[in-house]
Amino acid sequence: MLKDINTSQDTLQKFIFDNAAVKGEFVEISDTWREVQARHDYPAAVKTVLGEMLAAAALLSANLKFNGAIIMQIHGDGPVRLLVVECDSDLRLRATAKLGEGVTVADGASLTDMLNVSGKGRFVITLDPLEKMPGQQPYQGIVPLDGDDMASVIENYMLRSEQLDTRLWLAADGTVSRGLLLQKLPRHSGKEDQVEQASEADELETWNRAVMLASTLKQDELLSTDIQTLMNRLFWEETIRVFEPAHPQFFCSCTREKVGNMLKMLGQPEVEEALAELGHLGINCDFCGKHYDFDKVDCAQLFASDTPVETLIAASDIKH
Questions:
Q1: Any idea what DSSP says for residue 255?
Q2: How far apart, in whole angstroms, are the C-alpha atoms of residue 164 and residue 156?
Q3: Are 164 and 183 in contact (CB under 8 A)?
């Protein structure tokens, strides 16, 4: 029995198939997606890939068992140089894209056309704990950009790096970002959801049937249909348990301290050269557009400090 799901706001809905180690998640992101786009005029094809990454980051973050953030990046070798999406354990999201200078991206451009023209694109997932142990560094996995679309790139990463059967269906346009994740869990994995263990053959049958049903979902249908309707339409014959929904939201974690750390990463000679040319440094956060200003005194104080630099942020524009 499926209960009604309130999708009046951005929503991530977890569910599990009874008596089988198979779980799923739907996500629908509109308000947060509009916040991401509010300060940038991305080409339509870039919006599609970045929106799909946004949905995927929320779906993967909901599975993490630590207090921290998942950061997904694609480093491209085409007209799109960088895509970054970050989602923390509270489903707070931010995202940005970097295009090459003066490039044009066709509306129908594929992921390969934009990011993997010469086969040198890279997909990076970083797991960054909020409270690190002394000396602990974020975990980072880097793989070739293997796949024709965002869903297949992440599926290949999960199978290669996590050895987990994971299937994703993603779609995005200028209005909404949506996704569905199905995952076959390892048997006897602690019974975290208190499900009764089924036989291996029954679990495999449930997994194959769930994937087959989800594979009937078309992108247009995913874009235009709410979570409640999709769950009823796809899994109406299945016995599944639905959990309390979570609600993704836009949040940018930029601070003056982090921007200062970015300047320290550039190095004192480069910062002093920029100061000599510009007089002061005006830096805009790529994610939220917030402006930070550093004059010569501010920069001198940065390099007089012994504070370690451990900040991972996207490159920002420096303006006079």
A1: -
A2: 10
A3: yes
